[in-house]
Amino acid sequence: MLDIEVIEDPAAAEASLDPIRTRILRELAEPASATQLAAKVGLPRQKVNYHLKALEAHGLVELVEERKKGNVTERIVCATAASYLISPVALASVAPDPRRFADRFSAFWLLALAGRTVQEMGKLIAGAAVARKKLASFAIDGEITFKTAADRAAFAEELGVAVTRLVDKYHDGGAGGGRKHRLVVALHPALKNAQNQAEKDQGNDQ
Predict the structure, then answer these.
(1) Which of 16, 1, 127, 126 shows the shortest CA–CA distance to 64?
(2) Rounded distance, CA 81 to CA 88, Å?
(3) Which of 10, 121, 142, 172 is deepest in the core (most CB within 10 A)?
(4) What percent of the chain has pLDDT over 70?
(5) CB 77 within 8 A of CB 37
(6) Which CATH number is 2-84's, of 1.20.1260.100, 1.10.443.10, 3.40.50.450, 1.10.10.10?
(7) Are 150 and 157 in contact (CB under 8 A)?
(8) Cα–Cα distance for residue pair 163/73, rounded to 1 Å
C-alpha cells in the first residue's frame, strides 16, 4: 500500500469523491471483506459490493486474498493507498498553467505551482514504484511570524537572494550525467485555527 496515491484518471477521481466510497476507502486502510465493511459503514452487503466493484475497476481497491467458507468464497480487499490526492491532470482542460500566472507575488501562481507539483510528484512516485527505486526529494515546512509587512518583504527579498546564490553555486547546465531537479519556494499566510480565532473574538468582546 502506498502512503499517498495521486489520481489522474477523471473517472477514478469521480468514483473517489462519492461520500460512501470515500468512507469505504478510509475503512479499507486495513484489509476487510464486504461483510465486514457493511457492518462498519451501516449499509447492506450488496450495496457495499456494488461500490467495491466500482472502486476496484478504477484501481483504488485491490484484492488481497480469497478465503473459502464452505461453498462461499470471501474476497478480502484493501485500499491501494492510505491517502489520495486528485491530480490537476484529472481536469486537464481547465488545470492551471504556471506559465499563465508567472508572477512571484501572485497567489494564483503559487496555486498553479502547487498543482504542478502534485502532478509531477504523482508521476514520479508511480515511476519510482514501478522501477522499485527510492525517489530523491526534499522539503521544508515551518511557520514564521513577521512583526510588520516590511519585515515580511525584507525576508522574501533576502530569501530570494539566498536561493539564487545557491542555484548559481550548484547548477551545472553542462553536466552530461546530471539530473534536472525542480525547485519551488513558497511563502504564504498561515490559516487561522479555531483556537486563535476564538482568542481574537474574545479580545474583541472585551
Answers:
(1) 1
(2) 19
(3) 121
(4) 93
(5) no
(6) 1.10.10.10
(7) no
(8) 59
* pLDDT tens-place string over residues 74-101: 899 999 999 999 999 898 888 888 888 7
Count, residues in the chain: 206
- Torsion angle defined by CA atoms of residues 23, 141, 101 and 96, in that order, rounded to the nearest 10 degrees: -20
* Strand-pair partners of 78: 62
From the list 202, 201, 191, 110, the residue with the least C-alpha distance to 143 is 191
pTM: 0.75
User: Cell numbers of 188, please?
Assistant: 504564504
Return d(Cα 121, Cα 2) in angstroms, integer. 13
37-81 pLDDT, tens digit each: 999 999 999 999 999 999 999 999 999 999 887 788 889 999 999
Q: For cell 476564538, what's the residue?
A: 198
Return the number of other C-beta atoms located less than 10 Å from residue 125's C-beta: 17
